[in-house]
Design goal:
Helix content is 29%, strand content 18%. The chain contains 20 helices and 27 strands.
């Protein structure tokens, strides 16, 4: 137990001490840090005094058990009341053991492995001194030009919600106080950051409240229902007001309507950014708007520090606003057990044993194999060990396969694709050439690649984006592979040899010049620390590809946003309309994505029976079941992800053409048939009406079951109320 009730700390604090608890500073400000005193650029301009640092409530980006202990010790010696620091960091898809990026994890459709990845990330982070991770990011994403799609699990509210729950369970466990191998989770970015206009980072978001509630809010709510301790406000506007200063979003919806009583933190610098947004005239107004909206912690700007005391003393801001924010921060520290054990799980000896251990790397390898998606295969894959392979491309021997938000990961320790292939077939079977850089081409490298490929049985192309081309501030208007790589494909295609492309990237790409020129495409994303081994497992068929897309691949960027759960329009284009005018269509490209949500191939094939309903009429009290038989019609055992979609034929507001409502992953041996059954309840048919009430309507529905959102067979039923 703590030495005194949390409220007693609050009563003893001066106004200035309270305000400093609301400030989060980066590591260099703190005594005992390896980077202590390395305060440059914008950090120098903050004007932070030693006294403020002494009373600051949290530190950003600290890691390493001994450093965490040193900083906490130094802080506790100087803090008047002995209030410990909260240590927070971006542990997004692994700490030192890096897992695939979250978009790739979404493509695994494997909630248990997702939870396991978060549990391992928490274990490594906690033993290294971290208390809170800024994850999961659950923003719904429909525009692959936005670099941060790699940090989400995709375009579907239901799937995102399920992954949000899994990540929170993995990070936090069931008992944060006593389980010091876990960390508190912070769901982000609240709200609707994934809908930034033009796919441009930090940009405006403008949508109806109906769309917000129906599509974008469910995953945040799911994370909070799972017990997520923190929320990070987004950079963008919501209803014309930046989220950081949006009282209706944070105080009314999040706190009053949803009942969230945890900590709300700004994103980096976002309080002061109310000024360039045009929502505050100066730092004083930014501080007032943010504290009144409900921001408890200001990250890396000092509007609170400079102006809240004056705002309170002049009666503009009530001191109770400060008190409630401080109390929430202290309560989180109490939940983490920091008043009793300020060093919590930080342990240099255990850190050396746990971080990047073989067990964790094996889990990373398994999840990477489940996250890769086979998009095309015309008999090129799997490779045989007696084939000679020309491994060509800028990622053939690159360690840049961890992806953005892997700041503790080591590209040197990452398993390269070349090393993975050699481990399977031996160095004598693999010849390697770069061919080109990621964006640079020259004749010498091109000719080396042609010479290497000329004597090989199969060409494996290792292509993609550098990690800097996606992630935060990684928006791209042209999402094709760089021209240097497209030219490499074109030249090698002239050899007439079988070619398979392995893609490393953080977003769905426009695959013109790739999918139309090679015989096989394996989407590997940024697969993490064990990427080379995992991809080799798949290329040689030691593991069957089982990933399924959680975000559609556009036919071309001109379609964006393109997503499966769209509305039908009043003039929908039918399959037989061709280029009939006056329907909703493009004249120069199809409406449909190149590869749809839920799509993915295996080295085997599956056959689905027609779905059967238990009845054609359901009521709120009597749900239906729908069943389908799935048969492995190929020669290899493999997993299949059976997907359930529902369409509401007529509603108070228009309804999507399909909505994912459930899925099952099953393992089938060659020739094996398995019956898969889903229950359909009235609750699954509810949606937000025009008055924002949430209910179902009596009427006709279609239930679809199939291997993806495009190739699913439907059967109709009626809801009677």
């Amino acid at each position: 137990m703590t030495q005194q009730p949390i409220e007693n700390y609050l009563k003893q604090m001066t106004l200035e001490e309270k305000i400093d608890q609301l400030l989060q500073l980066a590591v260099p400000f703190f005594e005992g840090a390896r980077t202590e005193g390395e305060i440059t650029g914008p950090m120098q301009e903050l004007g932070v005094s030693e006294e403020t640092v002494r009373n600051t409530g949290s530190v950003l980006g600290l890691s390493g058990a001994q450093e965490a202990i040193n900083v906490q010790q130094a802080h506790l010696k100087k803090n008047r009341l002995g209030i410990p620091l909260l240590m927070m960091a971006d542990i997004i898809h692994g700490f030192k053991t890096i897992f695939p990026v979250p978009l790739a994890i979404g493509c695994s459709w494997d909630l248990s492995l997702a939870e396991r990845s978060a549990e391992i990330a928490a274990r490594e982070a906690a033993v290294s001194g971290v208390h809170v991770t800024f994850a999961p990011m659950v923003d719904l994403v429909r525009d692959p030009r936005w670099g941060r799609v790699m940090e989400s699990t995709g375009e579907d509210p239901y799937l995102n919600s399920e992954f949000a729950r899994a990540f929170v369970r993995g990070f936090q466990g069931r008992d944060l106080r006593n389980d010091t191998s876990r960390v508190a989770a912070c769901v982000k970015h609240f709200a609707a950051y994934g809908a930034a206009e033009g796919g441009r980072d930090y940009n405006t978001v403008d949508m109806s409240e109906w769309r917000l509630r129906e599509t974008y809010l469910p995953a945040y709510k799911a994370a909070l229902e799972e017990g997520c301790e923190m929320v990070m406000a987004s950079f963008n506007t919501v209803d014309g007001i930046p989220a950081t200063g949006n009282r209706r979003l944070l105080r009314q919806l999040l706190r009053e309507e949803w009942g969230f009583d945890g900590v709300i933190i700004s994103d980096w610098g976002a309080v002061k950014e109310l000024i360039p947004h045009g929502a505050a005239a100066d730092e004083k107004e930014a501080a007032r708007r943010s504290i009144e909206a409900g921001i408890d912690i200001e990250m890396m700007t000092t509007c609170y520090m400079k102006h809240l005391a004056e705002l309170v003393k002049t009666g503009v801001v009530e001191e109770k606003r400060i008190d409630e924010a401080v109390l929430r921060i202290l309560q989180l520290k109490e939940k983490l057990g920091l008043f009793d054990n300020p060093y919590r799980g930080a342990d240099p000896e255990r850190e050396a044993e746990i971080v990047f251990c073989e067990e964790h790397r094996a889990a990373s390898r398994e999840l990477a194999t489940k996250s890769c998606v086979l998009l095309k295969n015309e008999g090129v894959l799997p490779l045989r060990r007696d084939q000679s392979i020309a491994l060509i491309g800028p990622f053939a021997q690159s360690g840049d396969i961890l992806g953005p938000w892997s700041w503790q990961g080591s590209t040197e320790a990452a398993v390269r694709l070349y090393d993975g292939l050699v481990a399977k077939a031996g160095a004598s079977r693999i010849v390697v050439a770069e061919g080109c850089g990621i964006e640079e081409a020259d004749d010498r490298r091109l000719q080396e690649a042609v010479a290497a490929a000329a004597g090989a049985d199969v060409i494996v192309l290792a292509l993609g984006e550098s990690s800097e081309m996606s992630g935060e501030a990684g928006s791209r208007g042209d999402i094709r592979l760089p021209q240097a790589q497209l030219a490499l494909i074109e030249r090698l295609a002239e050899l007439g040899k079988p070619m398979a492309a392995v893609l490393f990237n953080g977003r769905p790409l426009d695959l013109h010049g790739v999918a139309d020129r090679v015989g096989a495409v394996l989407e590997a994303w940024f697969p993490g620390s064990e990427g080379g081994h995992a991809i080799a497992d798949l290329l040689y068929g030691d593991v069957q590809p089982s990933g399924r897309l959680s975000m559609s691949f556009p036919y071309a960027a001109g379609q964006i946003p393109v997503y499966y759960n769209h509305f039908n329009t009043g003039r929908p284009k039918g399959a037989s309309d061709a280029q009939i005018r006056y329907v909703s269509q493009y004249l120069d490209m199809p409406n449909e994505p190149l590869f749809p949500f839920g799509f993915g191939l295996s080295y085997t094939t599956f056959m689905y029976s027609e779905p059967e309903l238990s009845a054609t009429v359901m009521t709120p009290e009597q749900p239906l079941t729908i069943k389908v038989n799935v048969t492995n019609t190929g020669s290899a055992a493999a997993e299949e992800t059976v997907q359930l979609y529902i369409r509401d034929i007529a509603g108070d507001v228009v309804r999507p053409v399909k909505e994912l409502k459930g899925f099952r992953k099953i393992l089938l041996q060659p020739g094996e048939t398995q019956e898969v059954t889903f229950e359909i309840t009235e609750a699954q048919l509810r949606y937000h009406h025009s008055d924002l009430t949430y209910s179902s309507d009596a009427g006709e529905f279609v239930a679809f079951v199939g291997p993806n959102s495009r190739d699913a067979a439907g059967v109709r039923f009626i809801l009677q109320k």
